[in-house]
Amino acid sequence: MDRFDAMQAFIRVVESGSFTKAAATLQMNKTSVTQLIQQLEIRLRVKLLNRTTRKVHVTADGAVYYEHAVRLLAAMDDAETSLSNAVTTPRGKLRVDVPSPLARLILVPALPTFYARYPDIQIDLGASDRKVDMVRENVDCVIRGGSISEQSLIARHVGDLTIGAYATPNYLAQAGTPTHPNQLAQSAHYLVGYLNSQNGKVAAVEASLDGNTVSITGRYQLAVDDGNAYLAAGLAGLGIILLPTYMAKVHENRGELHRLFEPWAFSPMPLYLAFPPNRYLSAKLRVFIDWVIELMAHHAPKCAP
């Protein structure tokens, strides 16, 4: 039995609650994972897991061993990193999930600068607006706009996205150009709805001017749950969109979108980078977080409280 492989398998089973899910994240078959855990229990002479037909539960002894195993593997990772000069050049694979527009317009174009510093880090990048089960999918960190509802995650505020209201010239020619946000709830205008991934409801946005704050409300014919689809709906003239300005900039410059309510300030969208508390903050993850903070300081600087 390779104790390193056995500890890794045990940690994955505890975090995912399933031998099948653990095997998938480790790219092993379920039988091999089961055998590793059994051999580990025989070696330690304790029962680490209680197995039922539906779920795997860690025992009291298993919970203690899990904490030690996580720290031990972290120390081993640090030792290997130090021996390979990875303090300055960390190495290994990171699994990251970010919103698709952020990946397309900010993160991916900037990655050459990241790889110039850290050529030995491999990134598996998921680009989506969906809610990610970080433990089950073995994701190291996510970047998300808006609040992080999962209280179990460690979240770092890395930036704020400025928001603007936009519509196409054709849409405004047909529906008229509103001059006050309240007109959207009192006229024939349509908003394109953006569905919150946490609760499935259309996200609300507030705007303020001279101490007055209003909530942007109105009818919609279409609501979507993806940033790229949301932008596409606005460009198709399906309604007014409330969009991060970095997504609208090129289309505004081309005359494809017109910005509305410019005297008004919209509530910024906070950006968070989150990771599981039991996931070791390795050198490769630390430098990635630092790089994201540096990147967002340029593209989405934090707003004053």
TrEMBL record:
InterPro entries: LysR-type_TF_proteobact-type, LysR_HTH_N, LysR_subst-bd, WH-like_DNA-bd_sf, WH_DNA-bd_sf
Domain HTH lysR-type residues, every copy: 1-59
Gene3D superfamilies: 3.40.190.290, Winged helix-like DNA-binding domain superfamily/Winged helix DNA-binding domain (1.10.10.10)
Source taxon at top rank: Bacteria
Pfam families, alphabetized: HTH_1 (PF00126), LysR_substrate (PF03466)
Keyword terms of this UniProt record: DNA-binding, Transcription, Transcription regulation
Family: Belongs to the LysR transcriptional regulatory family.
Protein name (record): LysR family transcriptional regulator
Organism of derivation: Symbiopectobacterium purcellii
